[in-house]
Every structure is written in structure tokens, then in C-alpha cells.
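Researcher: Checking consistency across runs. Here is 3-oxoacyl-ACP reductase again:
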Amino acid sequence: MNKVALVTGGSKGLGKAIALTLGEQGNKVIVNFNRNAEKAKLVIDDGGEAVAIQADITQEDEVKRLASEAENLFQEPITILVNNATGPQPELSLQDVSWEDYLDQLHFTVKAPLLLTKELMGGMQSKKWGRIINIGSEVVELGNPHFSNYVTAKSSVIGMTRSWANELGGYGITVNTVHPGFIPVERHGEVTEESAKGYVQHVPLKKLGKPKDIANTVGFLCSDEAEFITGQNINVNGGNTFGV
Ligand SMILES: NC(=O)c1ccc[n+]([C@@H]2O[C@H](COP(=O)([O-])OP(=O)(O)OC[C@H]3O[C@@H](n4cnc5c(N)ncnc54)[C@H](OP(=O)(O)O)[C@@H]3O)[C@@H](O)[C@H]2O)c1
């Protein structure tokens, strides 16, 4: 595809798989990370034409620096943006949760995607081509208790995606959200089908998903073949939920 793609939080977990897949598709990939330079380096060592750029994407000045470093390196606009990064996701009862706990999540699900999109959309508009993929979560349909900070923040991504899709569609820019189910990554430690059977038994496909399942879906949505898909919520969770 030979586009310039930015994956936020690409140093590990789902972001790493997404960055590697976009690289396999022939894109130049910016692997953004905040703290884990070593892990980000491993991703670019494995990838094609890739660079790692540190930036806390919840901070406006760091987003601007990230965009200008990327532009200097590649001399062309970033036209694929994957809003994937996440911070800690504490489970908190309604009694214990605070407004600050909600804001902590909204900084990742709304603030960072907004800052990045405002920074990058001019380049996409000039190319009359762009792909913005937000990473949501199946929790927006499950409404998990003791997790309203995260569930609320991920739910707001749905309206944001639809509004942006309407606003940017005329420029050939699509905006979609991919909602993963529970996909074990490094931070979950050792997870087996057996240890996760309480979850798996409700999943129609009776197994856990892999980071590559999410990456393949993102890769497709970033391709030219997906040019007529925008404003959508795509659940990648073995059928655990059926759609909002
Ligand atoms: N895994 C699942 O089961 C699952 C299910 C549903 C939805 N999701 C969603 O999928 C996405 C990825 O989740 P994950 O499980 O792969 O998470 P993860 O393994 O914890 O990875 C998070 C990534 O975000 C980066 N990051 C953290 N703070 C950052 C900041 N301020 N600025 C830039 N990057 C930052 C981390 O980089 P550093 O370590 O370098 O700081 C890391 O690369 C998230 O949006 C999550 O909500 C995941």
C-alpha cells in the first residue's frame, strides 16, 4: 500500500500486531510508544520500513512534535492513523470511582484521537485519502459492572467515529472502530483457554482471539478494498456480542 501509518501504543499488545501487519502490507509504519523504547525497537526490528517515536499522545505539544518528526522522516503525510494506545484500566465500583478516573480513560479514547486527527487530517485531505481506525472494546455492549470509567470512555468512541465519518467522508477519509473481545496480551500474563473458560464458554466460536485477529481487521479497513466502509463498528470477538 506504501502509505505512512501511525499506530499509537505500538510497542506491545494489540498495537504491536497492528504495526507489524501494516508493515507487512507495505506501509511505512511509525510505532508510537510512551515508556517502552526497548519493546518499540523490537517491533521496528521485525517490521519493514518502520520507525519508533516516543510521545505521550495525551499531551498536545507531544502530538505536535510526533507529527513533525514523522513528517521530517518520511517527507509525506501520515494518511493511516490507528488510535490504539491505552493506559491503566482500573476496575472501580460506582462507589469508589471518581470523575478523574473517568477523565483518565477519556484522555486515551477521546482526547488523544482528537488531537491526532486535528493534527493529521490536513495531510489526509490534501491526498484525498485517509484511514482513521479507533480501537474500542466489546465492553460497550457488555456494560461490565465496576468498570464504568472504561466502558463510558470506550462508548464515546462510537459517536465520535460516526460524526467524524460524516465530516471527513467527502475527502476520501474513512473512520471506523474495531471492537476487540478479550484478547490476552503481555499485560494479562499467562492465559489459557482453560483459565479463561468462564469467558470462552459464552463465545460462539468457543475460543480466545489473538492479536493478529484484530490486526487483520485493521489491515483490511486500511486497504483500498475497504474504501466504501465508514462510520462502522466492527466487533472482532468470536461473536461474543452482535453489534451496537
Ligand atoms: N487486549 C484486550 O483484551 C483488549 C480488549 C478490548 C479492547 N482493547 C483495546 O485495545 C487497545 C490496545 O490494548 P492492549 O491490551 O494491547 O494494551 P497494552 O498491551 O497495555 O499496550 C498499551 C500500549 O499503549 C502505549 N501507551 C500507554 N500510554 C501511552 C501514552 N500516554 N502515549 C503513547 N502510548 C502510550 C504503551 O506503550 P508504553 O508501554 O511504551 O508506554 C503500549 O504500547 C486499547 O485501546 C484497549 O483498550 C484491548
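Researcher: Does this match what you'd expect to see?
Model: One thing to look at in this run: The first helix runs from residue 13 to 24.
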